[in-house]
Amino acid sequence: MKTTAVSLLALLAAMPLQAQDIALDEIVVSANIAPIEASRTGASVETLSAEDLKQSGAMPLGRALATLPTLSYSDTGPIGSSASLRLRGLPGAYIKVLVDGIDVSDPAQTQSQFDFGTLGTADVSRVEVLGGSQSAQYGSTAVAGVISVTTKRPEQEGISQSVALEAGSYETLSGSYTLSSRGDRHEVSVTASRVHSEGFSAGDDSAGNREDDGFDSERLSFSASYDVTDVLSVGASGFYQHADSQIDECCEVDGDFHDGVTPDDDHSLLHTRGGRIFATLTGDQLTQTLSIYRFENERTTEGTERNFFGPDPSPYEWSYDGTRTVMDYRASYLPTDSLTLGFGATHAREDLFSATSDQWTLPGTDSGEREIDGLFGEATLALTPALDVTLAARHDDYSDFGGHTTARLAAAWRLDDTLLLRASAGSGFVAPSLYQLYSTQYGNEDLGPERSRSVDLGLEKTFGNGAEVKATLFHQQVEDLIKFVTLTTFPAYTGEYQTADGTSRSSGIALSGSVPLNDRLQLSGVVTYTRTSDPDGEALPRVPETDLRLGLDADLTDRLDAGIALHAVRNLYDERANSLIAMPDYETVEATVEFDLGQDAQVYLRADNLLDEDYQVVKGFGTSGRAFYVGLRKSF
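^ that's the sequence the OP posted. Answer follows.
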C-alpha cells in the first residue's frame, strides 16, 4: 500500500508540468482570529466544499471527513450508531468541533466530545479542519485540532430553493429542503432534513445477530444576517435535532456483541439544540464581534436487559443532560499593512445532570457545573512579502481546577509562486470533564488538565495543468492523562478517575495529491501513516497505521460523470479488557454515477462497499455490506 501511494506522488513529481501559481484567493476563517488567505497561515488546513459534500449523499458527515488526510472514522454499526473521528491519531476528546461557531461537544459525556453518528451533510456547506494544537485560540480540547462546520448559506441573489431526495439499501430514505434569500443588506437560509433507515444489526451478523438497528432523525437549521448600517451587521444561527437510534443492549460474549434477550426495545434518544446571536462592527482598521450562544444536549438510553435477579427482562434508563452558555468577544486590528493583531475574551458556563436506573445500581443522579474565563491574543506579521509569522497565546481560568496558559507559533513561507512551506508548534490542554470531576461513583475533584505539545511541517506544490501534491509531517504528545482506575472488585465494585504517569504520542506523515490525466480524467490519492503509543508503549486503538484512499473521477460526457474510490486500511487495533486486539486488514470500493438532467437537476447512483467486503472497524460491531443508493437534487 505504501508503494502505491508513493507511486502516485512520484507520478505527480515526474510529469512534465509547467508551474502554476498557488491559489491565493481561498479564505479560511478558522486558522486565525481574523479570516486570512490560505497561503498566509502556518496552520495545516484541509477543507470540504459544498461540491465535495454533494458527492457524499446522506452519509454521516464523519465519513465524508475521513476522506481527508490524517482523519479516520469508526462507528459501532449502521447510520445513527455512536461514531467518532480521530485526528492525527488522537480520539474525539482531543478535537474541538464547532457548528456555526457553537461548540457542540457534549458536556455530559464521560469525556466531553462530539458524537458524529447522527450528523449528516444535508445542511452543511463547508468544513475546515485545522491540524495540531489550537488551544491558543480555542482553549480546551483543541489538542489534535479543530473541525469547523458552516451550514448552508445563500449562493445567489434573490430567493432560491433546493431539494435533495435519496433512497437505497436497508430501506433508507432521506430528504432535505433549503430555502434561501439574499439581498443588498440581508441573507437568510433555512434547511429542514429527515432520515429514516431500517439499518442492519449493530452487533456483527457473523456472531448470529439478525435483528436490524434502525434510525430516525429530523433536523432543522438556519442562519441569518442583516447589515443595519454600512459598518454594523447583526445575525443569528441555530439548529435543532431529534434522533432515535436502535441499539444492541448487551453483551460481549467470546469477543462478540449480541442483540440481547429483548433485541427490539433498546433505543438511544437524542435531543440537541443550539443558538447563537452576534453583532459585528467593521471599521477601517478595527473589526469587532460580540456573540452569545447556548448549546443543550439531552441523551437517553433506555430498554430492557437480561434480568440476573428474576425471570422477566429488567428495564433500564440512563439519561445525560449537558448545557453550555458562552459569551465571546473577539477583534482584529490592522495597525499597518504588514501587521494584524487579534485579541478577545470569553466567559462560559457548563452544566451536567444525569440520572440512572437499572438492576445494578440504586436510582441516583449526578450533577456538576463550572465557569470558565479566557483571554487570548495573536499577532500575524508579514516579515517579507513571502513570509508570514503568527504568534498566539491564551490563558483560561476554570472555577474547578484553576488556570492554564497555552501558546502557538506558526509560519507560512512562499518559496516561489508554486511552492509553499508551512510550520507550526503549539501547546494545548484538555480540561477534565464534569463527569470525571463530579460523578458520585467515580469522580475525582482533584483532577487537573491533560497537557499537550505538537509540531508539524508541511510542503505544498502546484503545477500548471492543475495537479498538486502536499506532504505534512506531524508529532504530538499528551501528558498527565486522565485514566479510570479500578479500586476494588469485591465485595463491591469501586473505581475513580486519576491522573496517570507517562506520555501518549502520535507521529506520522500525510501525503495527498491529484493530477488530471486528460481533459476528462482525474486521479487523486491520500495516504496517512501514523505511529501511536500509550504510556505503556502500546499502540492506540482504532488508529490505522496506514490509511490509503485512491480515486478516479471521469467526465464521461458533458452531462454524465462517474467516480470510483478505493479505501485500504492496514495494521488497525481495537481494545478489549485493556488488551489490544489486531483487526484484519481490509479494502473497500465505492462508486458513483451522476447524470445532469438540465435546469439545475441531477440524478445519481452511489454504491458503498461495492465488492461486499466483510470487515470490522470496532471489534464485535458490524459494517455495511454492498449497498446502493439513488438520489435526486434540484435547485430552483
